[in-house]
Amino acid sequence: MSEQTVHKGLAGVVADHTAISKVNPETNSLLYRGYPVQQLAAQLSFEDVALLLWSGELPTEAQRSEFMAFERAHRRLMPQVRSAIDLLPVDCHPMDVGRTAVSVLGACDPDAEDSSPQAELAKAQRLFAAFPAVVAYDQRRRRGQEPVEPRDDLDYSQNFLWMTFGEEPAEEVVDAFRVSMVLYAEHSFNASTFTARVVTSTLSDLHSAVTAAIGALKGPLHGGANEAVMHTFDEIGIRAEESREQAAARAKAWMDEALTAKRRVMGFGHRVYKNGDSRVPTMKAALDRMIDYYGRDELLGLYDGLEQAMDQAKGIKPNLDYPAGPTYHLMGFDTEMFTPLFIASRITGWTAHIMEQRAENSLIRPLSAYSGPAERQLP
Length: 379
Ligand code: COA
Prior knowledge:
The protein is mostly helical. 59% of the residues lie in helices and 3% in strands. It has helices at residues 37-43, 46-55, 61-73, 79-87, 94-108, 117-142, 156-165, 171-184, 191-201, 206-218, 225-236, 244-260, 280-294, 297-314, 321-331, 338-359; strands at residues 21-24, 29-32, 35-36. The chain has a three-stranded antiparallel beta sheet. Helix 3 packs across helix 6 (117-142), helix 5 packs antiparallel against helix 10 (206-218) and helix 8 runs antiparallel to helix 13 (280-294). The site of coenzyme A has 14 residues, from loops. Coenzyme A binds next to loops.
């Protein structure tokens, strides 16, 4: 065995500085550029949060209006992106569609090979504006529906829901959606963000880094968990006619069985937070509002039943994906679209990290401890 210390999974390793967000597991807090995420989710539009993540400061009125006009001007699905999506099987995973779309957007971007700070910011903002149309188009094509054109009189969240469902969304729904976007936007050196930084560290381009990050996000141990949560609910069985108590009892029985079978239950646990995810109370409050709005108390029974059973058995708390999954379900998104929604939000955090990495770059290239056969000779 080698004498080298191996940090399996890089757990506990501090790989670099960042000024973008601070995760504090001791106090269960999360700050974006110094501001508590709960305050941002309560008070700001997602567009303002995006500007904060990119620039480090809250936007002035002039900066906000300029960005709002820019975002509206880049919302339409590009013909090249539409053609590329149309080539993909209608039953492929929507994360594959998102990954392909970002790759095409990169190849077609006017600043594709320009990595100056101005070009990087413009690319990040174009990607932010363009991605909702990809999700909306993909969900609609799977349902055999015609695409819906964006509307300039709607903000980012309203327009996202409009393009997906072709109906003007209720204020309550828009607000819960906005909250989810704010909460998913940034979370320090998680697996996908670190992937984006690794790719950037080779001086590759922004879209390559985001494409790679999407690959990392797809995994069920990371972003794919929000979708997996809904599969759990489906496996237990959603019964609209059931009372909250009946649903909770069935959920508890399911969890006990799953844990006895040593199953990993998605939506619970976190590499950094060991005593609860800082974002969960805000997202759970948004889910509660959606449950009230849609009158679906039995879902709360499933939610509480699983949470309590996991807490009693293992003391493991829910992560953000746990309340986000059923929230998106209630809004009408297909389960496989949940992780692409995470992409739409995390494009902000990823691109902020890509710009930060590039500004003070050092190639990310760790060592490995060799554990294969000792040197030997061919016979
Ligand atoms: N369900 C069941 N058991 C879990 C669990 C879960 N969701 N999360 C952690 N555990 C258990 C592990 O089985 C392990 O138990 P053991 O010590 O008896 O073997 C212990 O808790 C530690 O887990 P470990 O995988 O070493 O922790 P980690 O810090 O590497 O993992 C996650 C963090 C997120 C990968 C892990 O909690 C997980 O797989 N969660 C489900 C996926 C998910 O929701 N991901 C979204 C994250 S935001």
